[in-house]
Specification:
CATH superfamily: Farnesyl Diphosphate Synthase
Radius of gyration: 21 Å
Number of strands: 4
Largest sheet: 2 strands, antiparallel
CATH topology: Farnesyl Diphosphate Synthase
Shape: globular
Helix content: 55-70%
Number of domains: 1
Low-confidence stretches: 1-39
CATH architecture: Orthogonal Bundle
Structural class: mainly alpha
CATH class: Mainly Alpha
Number of helices: 16
Strand order of the largest sheet: 1-2
């Protein structure tokens, strides 16, 4: 499918205009790059995509609920839980990256294909999070009890049989599976090229999750492995593959694959590194998860790999407590201090800034029009500075 003629954007383009000032400056107090907007502010490039995607999700999930309640009224509860999970919270980043690559490649915002793909991404993300919470034994997600914990509490009724934990985890796995099937069905109208990318990103997501679980069980991983986990568990499926799908929906992936990867690959890594910072130092009122959960779970992150390499013998003794579920606030604080003192946090912050700058620089080689390029620039800055 051919698209309209595009202006190549570069620093030397005489007609290039920005819709708003996105120049980057540094906050000397924290070593982080910030824009004129507060880090938590949702950019218009994200907000304009979120609303129609959420409307499509409501439509899909309402139809499924109505369909299955006819079969058995007991099916209302799991579908209600999935609906609340999908529609409450979430940044809608994956639909946004897909949308703006689609627009840049010559598509229109009203096209049902990109809307369905955006909704499919959110359902797939629900699948991944619900299963991840089961594997990690997490108690809270987005400020609420996790799906498996909610059903475990339901099972506590005295007349129910079996083990509450197994019931809760089993139901959560099934609800996650439902979300994945609903996502796949939304993608059935995509062409073979797009569906191939869709399947590849799902394989990568599962491979990354396996490496994450394995690294957690082993207790530590080297920095190279930790970065590989970050790339496959989250980075590719959050940014790079959604970009590829946006172009693939129009049959233009071959044309844009390399330049989109030069933008999406480093930004995907920056996204996961920011996630690691938030999982260790984040504000629970914003992240929706207890402070230091990554430390309690023993997540194999680059942050912890760097700290372990640089720690003194005394600090290593304290770091061995990572992965202990019963770590209290004082324990978490002691570990946070070590992550600061070893320079691990500062190095990760520096890496996030460098990776984001690399991604933004790569936009010069993507032959999109001004609007999608500005959107991708704003999304990159948001990814770098987000606080949730």
């Amino acid at each position: 499918m051919s698209g309209p003629t595009h202006r190549r954007a570069g620093r030397d383009h005489p007609h290039r205009r920005r819709s708003r000032d996105t120049r980057i400056r540094r906050d000397p107090r924290r070593g982080r790059r910030v824009t004129g907007s507060a880090p938590s502010e949702v950019p218009p490039a994200l907000a304009v995509v979120a609303a129609p995607v959420e409307a499509r999700l409501r439509e899909v999930l309402a139809a499924e609920s109505a369909r299955w309640i006819e079969v058995d009224p007991d099916l209302a509860q799991p579908l209600d839980v999935l609906t609340r999970f999908v529609l409450t919270g979430g940044k809608r980043l994956r639909p946004a990256f897909c949308h703006w690559a689609f627009i840049g490649a010559g598509g229109t915002a009203e096209d049902r294909a990109v809307l369905d793909t955006g909704a499919a991404f959110e359902l797939l993300h629900a699948f991944a999070l619900i299963h991840d919470d089961v594997m990690d034994g997490s108690a809270r997600r987005r400020g609420e009890p996790t799906v498996h914990m909610s059903f475990e509490e339901i099972h506590d009724a005295p007349e129910w049989q079996g083990e509450a934990r197994r019931f809760g985890e089993g139901i959560a796995i099934l609800i996650g599976d439902l979300a994945e099937v609903f996502a796949d069905r939304l993608m059935t109208g995509a062409g073979s090229e797009a569906f191939g990318i869709w399947n590849e990103l799902k394989i990568e997501l599962n491979i990354g999750q396996y490496l994450d679980v394995l690294g957690t069980a082993r207790g530590s991983v080297n920095l190279e492995t930790a970065r590989r986990i970050a790339q496959y568990k989250s980075g590719k499926y959050t940014i790079e593959r959604p970009l590829h799908l946006g172009a693939a929906l129009l049959g233009r992936l071959d044309e844009f694959l390399i330049p989109l990867s030069r933008y999406g690959s480093p930004l995907g890594e920056a996204f996961q590194l920011r996630d690691d910072i938030l999982g260790t130092f984040g504000d629970s009122s914003l992240t929706g998860k207890p402070v230091g959960d990554d430390l309690r779970e023993g997540k194999p992150t680059p942050l912890l790999s760097i700290a372990t390499q640089r720690a003194t013998p005394q600090q290593r003794v304290v770091l061995r407590s990572i992965g202990t579920p019963s770590l209290g606030p004082d324990d978490i604080n002691e570990l946070q201090v070590i992550l600061e003192e070893t320079g691990a946090r500062a190095e990760i912050e520096s890496d996030i800034s460098s990776l984001t700058a690399q991604a933004i620089s790569a936009l010069d080689d993507i032959a999109f029009d001004v609007e999608p390029l500005d959107a991708l620039r704003d999304l990159a800055i948001y990814v770098e500075n987000r606080d949730r």
